[in-house]
Amino acid sequence: MTAGRDGARGDDTRGAGDCGRLAAAEIALVAEQLWPGCARPDFRAVAGPAGTTGWVEVERHAVLERGGRIELILPARRTVAARGLAAYARLRPMRLRLGRAALAAALAAGIVRPRAYIALEARAGGQDGGAHAGGAGGARDETVVGQLRAAFGAETDVLVHVRRTANRKALLQVLDASGRTLGFAKAARDPASSAGIRTELAALTELAALNDSDGDGNGDSRSPCVRTPRVLLQGSSAGLPFVMTEPLPRGIRAVGRAGSDAPSIAEFAALAPVARWARPAESGHLARLRSRSEDPGIARLEQSELRQRLDELLRCVEAEPDPAPIARRWHGDFAFWNVGRTRDGRLWCWDFENVDRDALAGLDAIHWHASRRRHARGAAGVAERAGILADAAAVLSAFGAGGARARVVLYRVYVAEVAARVLEAAANDGWARVWCAPAELARLLDAALAD
């Protein structure tokens, strides 16, 4: 698939007069997230149709750009886009909430009109399936949005915030013809994100059985504690998986980062029940961490000292002789941006792509409090070991990891996980898109290794 900077048709009623301003790199960034399965010679992403023969339009989306950077992919109908933007306002920080509300109002009133769009085109009579010869119907069946429309109706549309980080992938807010949210679809773009989506699908499938359960008597009851979204649709585009989950409840709000509104001990335990006791080295999670740390992609990074410190950290944990509580699973990204509360106080939790099984109990509590500090102070906040462990003390004690040594071990495993993710992201996409720079990761590893 190629990316072009073609001009728009003069009769396009959706306002694409400035399409030619979009840089090829911006078009490619959108295409890799919206049409990752179409990276083949018989497809191209363009900022408007070129007007050349031999190509047929498969899919078109309005885009909102600022300073040449595409920020949002929007439905062409302004009222649909406005309603989608206004949804779930209470999950957002106040500044973002106000900005979204203003944009939604301006779109609805016609004050703001997207002046650009991006289209996917297929070569007529192309070799990818032959169905392109008579039109774009066969190609539409291959895209994620095309499959969503086949399942939920031709008027189905999407709203997407374009991501630029190393972990970027499309998260599509799926809308009906009135702008009502039908659900959220997450689409892979490469092998790393494919693994994450398959992990999420497996976790949601397992947890779905517990949503309406009274539990099994082993501390794994999630009713009435925690709810997770149900899977509505799963599929793939050229071998890259996607999953769509149900919409979040109306009126759901953000969870306070501290105090009585923060997740309770029971809510932490509902997602990560203790299953057994064993030495840390005997946990499945630590064994997988060791394997990930030895990945050839990480080995090719220039920062060999970071790999050496991670290896030292893992050896410290592997040498621990005392048994520790092992949870059936840990969420992997249990942070305030992935949870919300409904009007009745029920906790909803989503984004399960980092779930791992047979992990030290208490890692989710460490991550919750580390994420608060990261939000406030960046990578330096994650290195505040004493503060994080003090914040998580009550939950860790409830899990049976209340001793000083047990807490240090938990923090070390957590930092090893963070380091592995950072190094994997850098190996996959370069350091420029990673939230933690090499020097910051070095300081974080030093904080974990300190006695």
Automatic annotation (TrEMBL):
<protein>
    <submittedName>
        <fullName>Uncharacterized protein</fullName>
    </submittedName>
</protein>
